Amino acid sequence: MNVLVTGGAGYIGTHTCVELLNRGDRVIVLDNYVNSSPAALRGVEQITGRTFPVYEADLMDYNAVKRVFSENQIDAVIHFAGLKAVGESVSKPLDYYRNNLIGTLNLLEVMKEHDVKKLVFSSSATVYGMNNEPPFREDMPRSTTNPYGATKLMIEDMLRDLCYACKEWSVVLLRYFNPIGAHESGLIGENPNGIPNNLMPYIVKVAAGELPCLSIYGGDYPTPDGTCIRDYIHVYDLAMGHLKALEYLGHMQGAEAINLGTGKGYSVLEVVQAFERATGRTVNHKMAPRREGDIAACYADVSKARELLHWEAVKTLEEMCRDSWNFAARNGARQ
Ligand code: NAD
Ligand code: UFG
Fold first, then answer.
1. Does the Cβ of 305 fall within 6 Å of ligand 2?
2. Are the beta carbons of 311 and 240 closer than 8 angstroms?
3. Which of 202, 217, 286, 320 to mutate to test the pocket of ligand 2 (most atoms within 8 A of CB)?
4. Whole-angstrom Cα distance, residue 44 to residue 96?
5. Whose Cα sits closest to atom 1 in ligand 1?
6. CATH class (in words) of the domain with range 2-180+232-260
7. What InterPro entries does the annotation carry (predicted)?
8. Assigned superfamily of 199-230+263-302+314-330
9. Is the N end or the C end of the chain the one with fewer CB atoms within 10 Å?
10. Ligand 1 pocket check for 59: Cβ under 6 Å
């Protein structure tokens, strides 16, 4: 299969490209490197021993997107490209709406013109909002508390409307829970600039001695140890979920939302302990006030993914921690 991967140089995109190439698919990457670099794609080439066309292009540039479709035979698209920082989306809402919505609209218009009607879209567990009880099921009411989440809701709706209007489209809306980990080679992984917002990159920097201490946001939640619970999923498992979603596109029509998580929740303290066990490093931590917008517990009901995609996550929390640390260590984290 010939697969266009938008945002293919990013964290989840690179890991998905590796598994597509390993399976023998042909990959075409489009990325403007706003949150990544060409070095990540060199890592993909190194792991797989394969090369592939890469377009440094902005999805907001309609003509650039058209060129990619004119110059390549494309059977399906995996659409990762988008801005994803929740906090930044609150301070720069227009950037998020412009990039995520206009980028997606351009992509869909060009897909339509070129008669490419199979799409896997990166949605997020953020669409379950603050008012549902976990485990989250795909048919629960959706809501959001920030512009980033609003773009995911709007794009999900846009895609449903498109599928309603034109029955030839097949779209899978994958709602990711909390992806962490890295490729076991340590050649690709998550490498945020500056001080990380997310838990695992922060833990890694504390373990490496680059940051002094992890603040645990809230020890008074109604959970067994008082800290928040999330459904952490290895980025390898997530990548494999995309391969299964592509297969599923071949025998479905319309738009289908599917959770990608493990179905198991771990607390912040459990993640810290698992990291220490898996790596032998110490993670200094202290309790801090709650972070605005956090919910006590977020984990997936994974039965739909199991039934429709014949997919489930296989990697353990220890493997996620070990691979996150291995990537950081190979890429210059202080030991
Ligand atoms: P990432 O930032 O590492 O990757 C996104 C890629 O898209 C980057 O390489 C970036 O340069 C590119 N990009 C952004 N805007 C672009 C544009 N206009 N034109 C071309 N390229 C553009 O993020 P990720 O963690 O790999 O996430 C991929 C997708 O999954 C995103 O849509 C994100 O919202 C979604 N998602 C991520 C998480 C997570 O925790 N990582 C959770 C839920 C959903
Ligand atoms: N946390 C800390 N200290 C930190 C960082 C995080 O205690 O320094 C805690 C958070 O309070 C939360 C947990 O660790 O309880 C996980 O936090 P992350 O920021 O890693 O992840 P979130 O669950 O908040 O957010 C993730 C994605 C978002 C997505 C959201 C909902 O990063 O893009 O899941 O699915 F919108």
1. no
2. yes
3. 217
4. 28
5. 10
6. alpha beta
7. NAD(P)-bd_dom, NAD(P)-bd_dom_sf, UDP_G4E
8. UDP-galactose 4-epimerase, domain 1 (3.90.25.10)
9. C
10. yes
Catalytic annotation present for 11:
no
How many angstroms does the Cα of residue 198 sit away from the middle of ligand 2? 5
Q: Dump the DSSP string for 261-289.
A: S-S--EEHHHHHHHHHHHH-----EEEEP
124 lines ligand 1 (CB under 6 A): yes
Asked whether the beta carbons of 90 and 20 are under 8 A apart, the reply is no
Distance CA 81, CA 108 (A): 13
